């Protein structure tokens, strides 16, 4: 009898676990924008309509809310500069938003090293946005080091996704 009840519960439990895990990994993760879903970060806004070019959803999907870094690097690649340049243009066109730039690292290295690396990555994105014309007071940075991976495995494909900076939108004060 107990076996019957257990087996009947497996499928729904497996579905619940799968849904919960899908919220933790990949884009749109449970851990916020930096962990996978750009506008789901701490203090982030609801994403709005993807078809609205002034919405956070559009920012996240059409422009891209993150850039990736090479191993132990905090220098923006040419591709990353293009994305951050578009982010900056969007922020200048949409003054009702501010942004927190989250810096992340892969699991390699010490916690202290990765926190410092994440901070450098976030600062590199912020500095580039400021150089593109975004007011410095609309941007802030935070580092999570290796504490919020979006991919959890000890392989380069996962490390590469976790070496990132994510731009998380927030409502500007007074808007």
Describe the structure.
With 175 residues, the protein is an alpha+beta fold. It has a domain at 56-171: OmpA-like domain (60s Ribosomal Protein L30, Chain: A, 2-Layer Sandwich), CATH 3.30.1330. Helices cover 43% and strands 15% of the residues. It has 5 helices and 4 strands, in the order ααβαβαβαβ. A 4-stranded mixed sheet has the order 1-4-2-3. The chain is globular and about 40 Å long. This is Peptidoglycan-associated protein.
Key attributes of the depicted protein:
175 residues, alpha+beta, 60s Ribosomal Protein L30, Chain: A, 4-stranded mixed sheet, 15% strand, disordered N terminus
Write a compact overview of the structure shown:
The Tol-Pal system is composed of five core proteins: the inner membrane proteins TolA, TolQ and TolR, the periplasmic protein TolB and the outer membrane protein Pal. They form a network linking the inner and outer membranes and the peptidoglycan layer. Helix content is 43%, strand content 15%.
